[in-house]
Amino acid sequence: MASERKFVAENVRRVLLKEYLMKEVSRAGFGGLDIQRTPMGTRVILTTERPGLVIGRRGQTIKNLTAVIEDKYGFENPQIEVQEVENASLNAQIMAEKLAFSLERGWHFRRAGHSTVRRVMDAGARGCHIIIAGKLTGQRHRTEKFKEGYIKFCGEPRELFVERGYAVATLKMGVIGVTVEVMRPDSKLPADTTVLSKTDAAAKFPDLFGGVAPAEAPVVEEKAEAPAEEVQ
């Protein structure tokens, strides 16, 4: 049980660090966190929409974050690497934060949900799925879902191609949970097929053509057989 407890404690520590960084860099647009253990220490890759706010003037902000990660969470020799999000509309965590902020500003949940779905799909995503749960219009808890395109809910394609983001909107009536799932544009599902031309097929599978491209393959002319003589 010692090894199991070690893995559980490590994952709990990573989740707590993620929650802390989400609050600290919320103004910069938190887009994701990746923690890698290296022989030199711990590499923390922080993805944000505006990296300049995370680095700070003369790097003071990132120095403070590094000190907190090492002292409070116990990571050895942490090295923070800040990366900029290529397309914020395809990042599930950033879109969840923006949707929660829209709800806090007073947007109707249907308007905010449809607007977010349209923004994600216009960015080129293969699919988008949004779940808004909480006291939306009254005292009773409700769950509304918005979906467009292709979304996988289980299996290996979900693990590989679907990104998930979660945020919380704090309103007077209570908190509202926002979940955004985005299927990336480069997703290739098992059912997707591609029809190759004869030249491309020969270049990719030369064994099927005897190692000769279709354009260079010899043409065999078929000679017409002479008609058999009629038997008198």
Describe this structure in words.
By secondary structure, the chain is of the alpha+beta class. The chain has 2 domains: 2-85, GMP Synthetase, Chain A, domain 3; 89-183, 2-Layer Sandwich (Ribosomal protein S3 C-terminal domain). 34% of the residues lie in helices and 25% in strands. The chain has helices at 2-24, 51-55, 60-71, 92-104, 109-122, 156-161, 198-204, and strands at 30-38, 41-48, 78-84, 127-134, 142-149, 162-170, 175-183. A 4-stranded antiparallel beta sheet has the order 5-4-7-6. The chain has a 3-stranded mixed beta sheet with strand order 1-2-3. Helix 4 runs antiparallel to helix 5. It is globular, with a radius of gyration of 28 Å.
Low-confidence runs (pLDDT<50, min 5 residues)? none
Please write the string of helix (H) and strand (E) elements. HEEHHEHHEEHEEH
Indicate the overall shape.
globular
What's the average pLDDT?
83
Q: Give the spatial strand order of the biggest sheet.
A: 5-4-7-6
Helical/strand content category: alpha+beta
End-to-end C-alpha gap: 98 Å
CATH structural class of the largest domain = Alpha Beta
CATH H-level name of the largest domain... which superfamily?
Ribosomal protein S3, C-terminal domain
CATH architecture of the largest domain: 2-Layer Sandwich
Strand composition percent: 25-35%
